[in-house]
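WARN retry 2 of 3 for item q-0093 after timeout on previous attempt; input resubmitted unchanged.
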Amino acid sequence: MESGPIVEKILEVHGGRQRWEGITALEAEISARGFLFAAKGCPVLDHVSVTAMTREPHFLFHDYPTPGSTGELIGTEEVRILGNAGRVVERRACPRAAMRRPAKLLCWDALDFVYFGGYATWNYLMMPLLLTRDDVHVEAVAPRRGIPPAWTCLRASFPETIPTHSTTQLFFFDERRHLRRHEYVAEVVGAWAHAAHFCEDYRNFGGFKAPTRRRVRPMLGNVVLPAPTLVAIDVHLIRAEFDP
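OK item q-0093 returned
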C-alpha cells in the first residue's frame, strides 16, 4: 500500500518536512537503564548529553565512558573513544561484526555499548525523518490482531548502510500520528531478541515533537511479555541545530 502521503502527514504532525530537513543535529539529554544494561555489564546512563547528526548515521555520547571523554559512532564503519583533546584513545572497525563473538553474549565493553547505544538512539531521535530517506523502503500494512484498528502500521526495510536493529521493522502510529509502538529484532543481542518498544509522553521541543518516555519489552511471537523491561529511556531535553 502506498505510504508516501501517510509519512508526510506523520512528519507534519512532528514539526513538518521543512523544519526537519533544516536540522543538522539534535542535542539531547537522556537517561537509560534496564535489564539489558545489567545483563551486559554496562553502566546506566544518568542525564547524559548526546548529539545525533541528522544527515548521516553519526552519533556522540559526551562524557562517556568517563568524564571528559566522548564515545563516537561513525556509521557502520567505526566506533571510537576520544580523549579530552579529541585524541583517539580506542577505536574498532566493523563494530557489528565484532559483536558476533561468543564472549559478547556475556559482556559488552565500552565500544560495544557505543555501537549499540549509539545507533539505537540515533534511530530513535531521527524518527520520523528516517522514514523519508530514499534508501529506506516504507509500506503501509494492515494492523494485525491486538493492535487498535485506528492505528497506522508501517513496515520499513533498511539498507546495510544504516546501522539499525534489523532490516525489517514495524512502526505503529496512533490516531494523532504519534509513534506508539516499534517492533524489531535486536540482532546484535541475538536473533531471538524480538522486542516491542513503547513510546509515550510526547513533548514539543521548539516546534518539533518527540516522545520522552520509551520502554522496551521482550516479545514471544506477537505477544508482549510483561517483564523484564529490557531498556528504559527517558528524554529530558532535545535541542535542534539548524542550517545557518
